[in-house]
Specification:
homodimer; alpha/beta; Peroxisomal Thiolase, Chain A, domain 1; two-stranded parallel sheet; 25% strand; globular
Chain lengths: 334, 334
């Protein structure tokens, strides 16, 4: 393992992604990727009395599913990296309080899933861990309530707004196995270009995605064509177009092999999610469900997964602040 | 570097703490450790219009102070680990948005400072980083407003409540230098013993502190007497007494060399903080100010620093949930 360039770590013994799991809510279950998810819930409560408790149950059961699918016992997991969008990351800490595994709480907003893969890979590669588990969740109802308006108000949502994915994505990393493998991680810096519209997260996060993307290409000497797929976490339709344009003006054409998990998870015409999906679980479930299976079936051979996060809260918006963004990337190959 | 026992990482080339910095608010400046802090503020705003912006300024300037004291240029810092108590950790992301360093956001509530030292040490030891910076902050006014009641209400505080420290603590870790050195980290698990009183954090976090302390002794084969000082982050007077008792009933007498940063930072008789200090900056400033200087002056030779966090938010308390706790430890020697 060594640092190459300014922000990239190259794993000389690439880190195996042993298995993944994902559980999603009802809207995601009606989307085009439904068949790739481990479990599709019929409602947003899953038998719980509040959305926050439901989100905790979702991350807990997704972790249990990932462990079961991996055929390892829970006590073989050395460390857990987990975080979510709820204030003080309570979905993770309540959902995983019985996990009984050394726990590092992380917060990268919607970039959390890849932040976990990045940190977890360093731990596996440096031989302090045989297995690590990387977990994240989000929930449409708990996120709307916390970041925007009470759902009961029935507020109209602008066309640039995105739909927080209800679900959880979990990956177990290990020293050995037959791949897919994490070969590099490019760790993002905070980038703030002054966007203040909390209903246009795609525009706020696109500059951070560009920064990490360009840095990844410079650090590794690669071009967009190296990858079968370059996938951002949740820029949505608006942010995706901005990233394509910004990349083009910096000399990189990503049009043919680039997509965004927020664009992929919902159907644009029938599902009325405006600019697409968002939330920690957007990248988490699309990767853990669809992308991981494509890698295992060798339909993708080289993927750059780059999750983006908007590092704001409702108080900062009320105080007139702009929205700092961040993007973390991992390169995954079979 | 290798994992020993269940939760401990031993650094075979101990990680150097190159330098530290801390800035504190006015109440901390009236306390017994005032002379050890780099800067003592005269009010809670520091020229800003809101408490949140003031907290961001405090972490930003503490980072600048740490870098200046370390005699390294900012571009020599490979990674930043930072987090705080505000929803979505906005103190860190706004305060450090111009830092221009690859950024891992972390959340461990008041355990965040030691969580950063723990992760940062793994990065330095595994040779992917020459220098990392570990940062945290908290602010009495922004925390009271967010977690409890508007300050303007003038609510009476129960005797078990603690006073969130206004300030920031920052440490820069490096591969080389003359110490003090981080030799081990014991990574905590989430522990929830069912305490529900959000005005008695010490009682909620003490079982997690006990769990990490006992595990540290088992994993390393050490006893309490190995250390000149065992320091918890912010158990306060109530939690400190509980931890002493719980340790005693598990066969470890820590009475003679154990103290808590929340007990140390304020004067019990004159400062009316009830059960003592708390917040990410409690452990952060007491370590970065007082403890680090004691280590450099060889007045302490072996310190176990264990920060404790309560992983709840105001919604979870309103929904009748108990308070999960966590404690992360680092062993520091000269």
């Amino acid at each position: 393992m060594k640092k190459i360039g300014k922000q990239t770590i190259k794993f000389e013994n690439p880190v195996n992604i042993l298995n993944t799991a994902c559980i999603v809510g009802p809207k995601e279950s009606d989307g085009p990727l439904a068949k790739y998810f481990d479990k599709c819930l019929e409602d947003e409560f899953w038998g719980e009395s509040t959305w926050e408790k439901a989100e905790s149950k979702i991350i807990k059961e997704t972790v249990n599913t990932a462990i079961a699918k991996s055929n390892i016992s829970q006590d073989k997991i050395d460390f857990c990296f987990a975080g979510d969008l709820l204030n003080q990351c309570i979905s993770s800490s309540f959902g995983l309080r019985e996990l009984n595994v050394p726990f590092y709480g992380i917060f990268g907003a919607c970039s959390t899933f890849v932040e976990g893969l990045s940190l977890g890979s360093v731990f596996v590669e440096s031989n302090v861990a045989e297995h690590v588990i990387c977990c994240t969740s989000s929930h449409f109802c708990s996120a709307e309530k916390q970041f925007r308006f009470p759902l009961e108000l029935g507020n109209q949502r602008p066309q640039s707004s995105q739909w927080t994915v209800t679900g959880s994505g979990v990956a177990i990393l290990s020293k050995s196995g037959d791949g897919p493998f994490i070969t590099h991680t490019t760790v993002g810096k905070i980038v703030d270009m002054g966007i203040k519209d909390a209903n246009n997260m795609g525009a706020a996060m696109a500059p951070a995605a560009l920064d990490t993307l360009l840095t990844h290409f410079k650090d590794t000497g690669r071009n967009p064509s190296y990858y079968d797929a370059i996938l951002t976490g949740d820029l949505g339709y608006v942010g995706k177009e901005i990233l394509i344009e910004l990349s083009q003006s910096n000399g990189y054409n990503i049009k043919s092999n680039y997509n965004d998990c927020g664009v992929m998870i919902f159907d644009k015409d029938s599902q009325d999610t405006h600019s697409g999906g968002s939330g920690c679980a957007c990248c988490g479930t699309v990767f853990s469900g669809y992308v991981y299976k494509m890698l295992r079936e060798k339909k993708f051979k080289k993927v750059l997964l780059m999750a983006t996060g908007a590092l704001m809260n409702s108080t900062s918006s009320q105080q007139g602040e702009s929205i700092p963004g961040i993007a973390h990337a991992v390169s995954i190959e079979i």
